[in-house]
Amino acid sequence: MPGGAADHADAGSGSASDLPGSRGSGHDTLPGGHSGHPEPAERPHDPENAGDSADSNPAAESADDATGSHSDGQHAHGDDNPYAGHEPDYSRPALLPADGPLTLRDVRNTRDVRTRWELGEEFHRQMLGGGPERHYPVPTNNDPRYPVTTTGGRKVDVPVDLPNGGTIAVEVKTYGPYRTLTLKDGSHQLIRNEVPLSKHIKEQIHKDVALRRMNPGYDPRWSFTHAGPSDELRAYLKKAKIIFLEYGPTPKKDQWDPPSKKK
């Protein structure tokens, strides 16, 4: 992820740009639709082996049919086995996998810093149809407003390739909503966290601007999954004309939750 774990260390939330499913400060919309989750794939079915049994014996089955019972003494017919004669219904869609599509709540509820930003990136890949992290070479320059002073290029968290050849370059920030300050007397104070306009984050913005100038199809977007940008970072992104997203409160329930049981 761009900037390493330092950019994603525990650092409020807001309302935002134009990623799907949110209110925004920009003018475009990222691909992916409003549902944002991939459709579950149906399980493969081999009809030739659906009823196979390693212990099947035609002769024994004929004998059992004649007497109406199996060798274990259980009746094969009647009410003892309500599913007798029924084949699986393969026309029905497969159940969602146990580790189904990620939700914003999954990301926010993850305490480990590294795991949280990895899940944050994967959440956006699933929602937007993006690819894995991608490296872009960026030469240094002496631009008076957005100079690129460090080598190493730019790593985009979630590149979303468009049909027209362009790329939505999504930068994901997963700072926690609060952080703890230790006061001089040794006591602790919990304060609301913000993503700061650090030297490294400023360089990321400069490289996004440089890449956009070199390739007009390169469209950077920033996404804040929990803690929002500081006032300085917010103003800097707007000045650079980079669309950014801030998510609102986590939904109490989403479409992947199992149905609640009535008491």
Task: Give a quick set of tags describing it.
alpha/beta; four-stranded mixed β-sheet; 5 helices; disordered N terminus
Polypeptide structure, described:
With 263 residues, the chain is an alpha/beta fold. It contains five helices and eight strands, in the order αααββββββαβαβ. The chain has helices spanning 58-67, 104-108, 113-128, 199-214, 231-239; strands at 134-136, 154-156, 158-161, 167-173, 178-182, 188-192, 218-224, 243-246. It has a four-stranded mixed β-sheet, with helices on both faces. The protein has a two-stranded antiparallel ribbon with strand order 1-2. The protein has a two-stranded antiparallel ribbon with strand order 5-6. The longest helix has 16 residues, at 113-128.
Largest sheet: 4 strands, mixed
Order of helices and strands: HHHEEEEEEHEHE
Task: Order the strands across the largest sheet as they lie in space.
Answer: 3-4-7-8
What's the shape? flat
Secondary structure category: alpha/beta
- What is the first-to-last residue Cα distance? 45 Å
**Percentage of residues in DSSP E strands:** 5-15%
Q: Give the overall average pLDDT.
A: 74
